[in-house]
Design a protein that fits this description.
Number of domains: 5
Strand content: 5-15%
Strand order of the largest sheet: 9-10-11
Largest sheet: 3 strands, antiparallel
CATH class of the largest domain: Mainly Alpha
Helix content: 40-55%
Shape: extended
Distance between the termini: 24 Å
C-alpha cells in the first residue's frame, strides 16, 4: 500500500507526465512527504544513485528510483522493527495502535475513536486513512511528534513567576564549596561538592551510623559496616563492599585497619549505593536531590506512563520505599528510596502478569501444539526447487517456532538442502544468520 501511495504522489508531482522529476523537484517532494529529512543527505543519496550514469541522464529521477530513494532515506530501521515486531506486518490497524499505546507507551484508556483521530492526523496516505491503517511513514511521524516526546508537555509550562530579578528568589547556595576546612590554608577537594549536594542524605546517614554505633566510639568494624550498608540497601553486593573497604584502608597502619569512621562510612555508602544514572534522572526531573509527592505523581505519569495515580497512592509509595523517617515525614523521596522504587517489581520492564504460567506445562512436549515448518529452506518444489535462507525469515515472521535445518557437508563448509534431491544448496552460515535476525521479531 505504501508503494501505491508513493506512485500516486509521484504522478501528482509529475506535471508534464513524462515519468521524470529533476533533482530539486525530487528533494522538494520528499521534504513535503517527510519534513524531518535532511536536504544534504537527500542530495548525497541522489548522487550515489546517479554515480556511473551518462551526463545527459543525470538529474532525471524516474518513479522507480524515487520510490527506492524515499524508502531508503525515510524508513528508520529501528521504527520499522518496532512496527513489524508488534504487528507482524508493515502497517497498524486502529486496534493495534490502541494496544501499542497501552502496552508500550503506557497511555491507558484511549478509545478507538481517539486512536482513529491519531491515524487521521499522522497518516499521509489517504487510502490507508480510509482503511483505518497506519503505515510506516505515519507511524514514524507519530513517534517523533510532541505527543510521544520523552519530556512531558507539562514540564514545558513555567509554573512560577520568573519575571523578577534573580535576587528576589531563594536559592540554596554554598560558598567556597571546594574547601573542606580552613578558608585560608585548608585542603580543597571535589568531595566538598558531593557533601553540599547530598546534605539532606548526609544527616540521615549520620543518624543511622549513630544508631548502629552501640559503644558510641564513633567507629564500626568491617562487618558492622557491611551489615549496616546491606540493611540500608539489600541490593548491594557483599564482595563489592569488602573490595571498596579494602581500597579505603590501603596504606593505613595495621592497628587502624578494620575501623570505619562516620565520615568514611558515609563516603563509602554514597559511592557504592548511589547509581549515577538514577541520580541524574532524579536531578534532571526535579532540579534537586529529592522528589516531593507531586513530583513523583508527575514522574509516574509523564515518564512511566502510569495514569490516574492519586496523591495518596504516591504517598503510599514514598512510605513503602523511602528508608529515611525524616524524608517520609516530609513526604519526600531521596535518592535511596527512588533507587529502591525503580529497581522494585512495580517498575519492572516485564509486567508481573507475564510471570504467571497460564497453561499446564507438566505434559510431554508432544502433547502441545507448536507452530512448525517442514523443509523450511525450500521456496518451491520439494525435489528440484531452490533453497534459500529467505524461507526461514518468511516462516519466523509468520510466527513459526520450530524450523527444519537439513545440514550436509559442502565444498566450502556446511550447506543446507533437501538431501538426495536436485534442490539447490544454501550455506549454513546464511541460514543461521537469518534465524538470528528474525527468530524473536514477531514472537
Amino acid at each position: 500500500m505504501r508503494e501505491k501511495w508513493l506512485h500516486q504522489v509521484f504522478d501528482a508531482a509529475d506535471s508534464d507526465q513524462k515519468g521524470m522529476l529533476d533533482e530539486w523537484e525530487t528533494i522538494a517532494l520528499m521534504k513535503k512527504l517527510n519534513d524531518k529529512l535532511c536536504i544534504r543527505s537527500l542530495k548525497q543519496k541522489i548522487m550515489e544513485f546517479e554515480f556511473g550514469k551518462d551526463e545527459e541522464e543525470r538529474g532525471r529521477i524516474s518513479k522507480k528510483v524515487f520510490i527506492t530513494l524515499f524508502t531508503e532515506t525515510a524508513t528508520r530501521p529501528d521504527i520499522y522493527f518496532i512496527l513489524v515486531r508488534y504487528c507482524g506486518r508493515d502497517y497498524m490497524t486502529v486496534e493495534d495502535l490502541q494496544l501499542f499505546l497501552e502496552g508500550e507507551q503506557g497511555v491507558c484508556g484511549l478509545s478507538i475513536e481517539e486512536c482513529l483521530d491519531l491515524i487521521t492526523k499522522y497518516e499521509p496516505s489517504e487510502e490507508a486513512r480510509n482503511n483505518k491503517q497506519l503505515l510506516i511513514d505515519g507511524f514514524t511521524q507519530f513517534l517523533l511528534s510532541e505527543e510521544c516526546d520523552i519530556m512531558s508537555v507539562h514540564h514545558k509550562d513555567i509554573c512560577h513567576d520568573m519575571s523578577q530579578p534573580l535576587s528576589h528568589y531563594f536559592i540554596s547556595t554554598s560558598h567556597n564549596t571546594y574547601l573542606l576546612e580552613d578558608q585560608l590554608k585548608g585542603p580543597s577537594s571535589a568531595e566538598g561538592y558531593a557533601r553540599a549536594l547530598l546534605q539532606d542524605m548526609r544527616s540521615y546517614y549520620e543518624r543511622v551510623f549513630d544508631a548502629a554505633d552501640s559503644d558510641q566510639k564513633g567507629m564500626l568494624d568491617e562487618w558492622e559496616t557491611i551489615a549496616l550498608m546491606k540493611k540500608l540497601n539489600d541490593k548491594l553486593c557483599i564482595r563489592s563492599l569488602k573490595q571498596k573497604i579494602m581500597e579505603f584502608e590501603f596504606g593505613k597502619d595495621e592497628e587502624e585497619r578494620g575501623r570505619i569512621s562516620k565520615k568514611v562510612f558515609i563516603t563509602l555508602f554514597t559511592e557504592t549505593a548511589t547509581r549515577p544514572d538514577i541520580y541524574f534522572i532524579l536531578v534532571r526531573y526535579c532540579g534537586r536531590d529529592y522528589m516531593t509527592v507531586e513530583d513523583l505523581q508527575l514522574f509516574l505519569e509523564g515518564e512511566q506512563g502510569v495514569c490516574g495515580l492519586s496523591i495518596e497512592e504516591c504517598l503510599d509509595l514514598i512510605t513503602k520505599y523511602e528508608p529515611s523517617e525524616e524524608a517520609r515525614t516530609n513526604k519526600q523521596l531521596l535518592i535511596d528510596g527512588f533507587t529502591q522504587f525503580l529497581l522494585s517489581e512495580e517498575c519492572d520492564i516485564m509486567s508481573v502478569h507475564h510471570k504467571d504460567i497460564c497453561h499446564d506445562m507438566s505434559q510431554p512436549l508432544s502433547h502441545y501444539f507448536i507452530s512448525t515448518s517442514h523443509n523450511t529452506y525450500l521456496l518451491e518444489d520439494q525435489l528440484k526447487g531452490p533453497s534459500s535462507a529467505e524461507g526461514y525469515a518468511r516462516a519466523l515472521l509468520q510466527g513459526c517456532r520450530c524450523v527444519k535445518v537439513d545440514c550436509y557437508d559442502g565444498n566450502d563448509g556446511p550447506v543446507v538442502y533437501h538431501g538426495n534431491t536436485l534442490t539447490s544448496k544454501v550455506a549454513l552460515e546464511d541460514v543461521l544468520e537469518t534465524i538470528h535476525a528474525n527468530a524473536f521479531v514477531v514472537s
